[in-house]
Amino acid sequence: MAHSIQIVHRQDDDRVFIDMPDSPDNPCISCGICCAHFRVSFYCGELSDGLGGFVPAELTSKLTPLMACMKGTETGHGRCIALRGALGQPGIACAIYANRPTPCREFPTWLEDGTPNPDCQRLRASIGLPPLAAQRQD
Questions:
Q1: What is the separation, in whole angstroms, between the first and last Cα of the chain?
Q2: Domain ranges across the chain
Q3: Which residue of 2, 17, 46, 60 sits 20 to 30 Å from the alpha carbon of 99, by its own alpha carbon?
Q4: Taking the C-alpha atoms of 33, 34, 37 and 39 in order, what is their torsion angle to the nearest 10 degrees?
């Protein structure tokens, strides 16, 4: 099993944010299917046109007075407007990775015990990518 490459940040309020390095070991930079499958909805306070928000408002759609989502993902099974590249091909990436919304920050490739996220495994298989191996826990 390989070393874990997923970087986990725990917030004071028990939220967990996930970062993946820009390296060849990062399976996300040759996948991207989660960004073309899930509706990415989040609290409007994260929008750049609000106080302290960081998600570019022009890339979002309003769902309710309090909720927004990334354009393209409004109904699920749609490609996020910030996704660049071809699904399942090397180099696919998020154009706003540093400013991505909370759901994107919270989606883990591997669970805390080092096993691959079942949703990630299922989505990878749907575009013909091999399953991920479990990560060694140090």
A1: 11
A2: 7-127
A3: 2
A4: -150
